[in-house]
Amino acid sequence: MAAARPRKQSQVCVQCKRSKKRCDGYVLNAVQRTPAGSTSLPWTLHGTFKKTLQPCTYCKRTLKDCSFNSSWAVSADRDSTSPASNVPLRVHGVSRADFTPGTRPSSDTSTSSTDSSRSQIYNLARQRPPAHILWRLATPPSPFSTESSLASCSSNQPLVQSLLQIYHDVMENNLACWVTDSTCPYMTSDMYKPPVLGDPNGKDSPAPEWGASWSNRMYQCVLRLDRAAQPTMIHLTPIENRAASRALELAIMSFSSQWQGGQRMESFPSASPNHLDSPAERLALGLEQSLRDLLWKQARTALQEVSELECFRVIYAEFIFGLTQRPWTDDDFTSTFRISSVSSRQDTLESEIARIFSQENSSVYLDRAVRKAHALKYRFDTSEAGLFQESEPKFSPQDRQGIGFLYWLLVMHDTVCSPMNERPVVLADEDCVMDALKQHLPAQGSSGALQVNYRWKLDMFLHDDPDSPQVPRWPCSYATAAKAIIKSTPIKILLYRYVFYLQNAIKNKESKRSVENCLQGAVSVCRYWDMTYSPFFSDLVRNYGSVPPRLKSWFVCIHVAWNLGMLLLADLIDLIDDKGMSNKTAAQARRSIDFVARIRMNGALELSELARADTASKEALPGYHFAVQESPLLTEPCTAIFIRGFMKASLYYLSLAADLWGQEGVHHRDFNKHQGMKDSLMRLDACLRALWCLGRKSGLARRVTSLMLREYYRLQESLVEANSP
């Protein structure tokens, strides 16, 4: 029988008892008393623990000698032998054991759920952490304290569990769709095998990772890879090893903290956005903002300390932190509105939004992660080729697959984020040659070896005949829909690669023939999408309420990114044709059919339809963390993609409404009777509501939304004044 918890007076050290202070020594030592694998926090990645009792916070702050109450040690020894302490807490498929090295989730534990586990779900991860926990974490540590934020979080297991759940429901949820053995072009095998989707037994059943419960696959993958790569491919000292683990821990916590406090923004402003910076709201958000700022700064410091280390944990930490937006301060908030309030012109609005985006520097961490991943992939390939047989690491087939998965993950985000942020891709085509292309490369020394074209092509990513592709439609089986969404991911990436090709061609002032060939390649990708995934995704939007939550969170992230890519492509084609940088005949043909205008209209239309469907639904993702369950828009790890997508759609409808207002006769009658004006304002409102929803986890989204709302309400006021008697 387990020992009872010590009485309250036994939990107070002598110094706190004399000073009549609340002593937290028992709580601090309770979470540090057990080794990894029992009741230790999931952040204890190293499997180490301290036998020495820790002083309480009051004694550390006042530099007094803590009495080290012996009752704590006795209770720790007794509790560590309790059978209940060996039962991992599982929350919606994620448990503490999933974040502990050496443990792997089994299919039985990942799919089973009991009433007691559901009770734990809603008692811990699904509820908002208590205010006193957030206050203690948000308060900067004492200058005399040597403990990190992790030590503070150690005594606040509900908050830590909540942050873990967010990471699980957001990051690992999407990686199960983006990175699969059927779509990854880097399988690190000697002989390339075409990807095959579906059950090998011929059954139309979903894979285990596609269902309502999934593991922390990528997190466990990077830990496993670092263990397998040492000490042959990766050389880390014990101190460096601990620093790498700490950087990953803090990166995950900082990433997840973006969603803390978002539920305080409940209603969309209906009259004026002036209350966005009201004292009441800023006071309510101040606590969560302090927590986010503390974790973000500590994660940045930890990553700076390991910036010279090359290991898989550091790569993954830099990748996660590269997707984490910088917390915005009140000074940034004030200066933005002062500048934007003096102008109402749309070009000034766009330049102000561009200025806001320029203040984000998260791409630096993503670039570092890509370079390090490329270096480790190179070492792996050379060892596989037998160049370093004396120190060849022992990788299992699962580890080899994991290297390809992580590399493809970094290549994908490099391809998407670089053209979106107007930056060059880190890895050129010849540096990230895919397995499908390697089989067709000429041998070294042959006549065609110098004329190799490493550019990505559509046939590298196809799983069917491009002339007669399979066209899925909803409703269909869960497995069929999941396969279709998964297969669409690399096509989306290919579109952004062609956006980069066009940006590079314009920058390098390439020949008209080269630019036109690149442009036609992008058009072929769009044409294939229109024949296959466009009708399917439109079905999912129309039947939004009937789509299962997991599939809904998947397709929304791909759908928004695709349409943003289309809007970026339209801007480039417009610039190319306007400056005569392409084939003259082809440019005239595009103008004759309003090719660019149609792309912009379709992209904005798709985004506004999704925004209308999403904002009309309530609790679209039941069972997910409370911070994301209201909308799949909150499950995108890279928030900047969604912000840019709905921002460009909002600008499109704002410009369209302004143009209609300027037309003769429109402003002389009730604008609500003008169908074009009415539809534009309705779709603009939907896109702004989507941006407002993103503002629950992003200060950048809140600022962009505020600027857009000012122009929106200014236009509405002009319309009302013109139609007033």
From TrEMBL:
The keyword Nucleus applies. Residues 100-119 have a biased composition (Low complexity). Residues 75-119 are annotated as: Disordered. GO terms for molecular function: DNA-binding transcription factor activity, RNA polymerase II-specific; zinc ion binding. It comes from the Eukaryota. Keywords: Nucleus. InterPro entries: Zn2-C6_fun-type_DNA-bd_sf, Zn2Cys6_DnaBD. This is Zn(2)-C6 fungal-type domain-containing protein. It comes from Fusarium kuroshium.
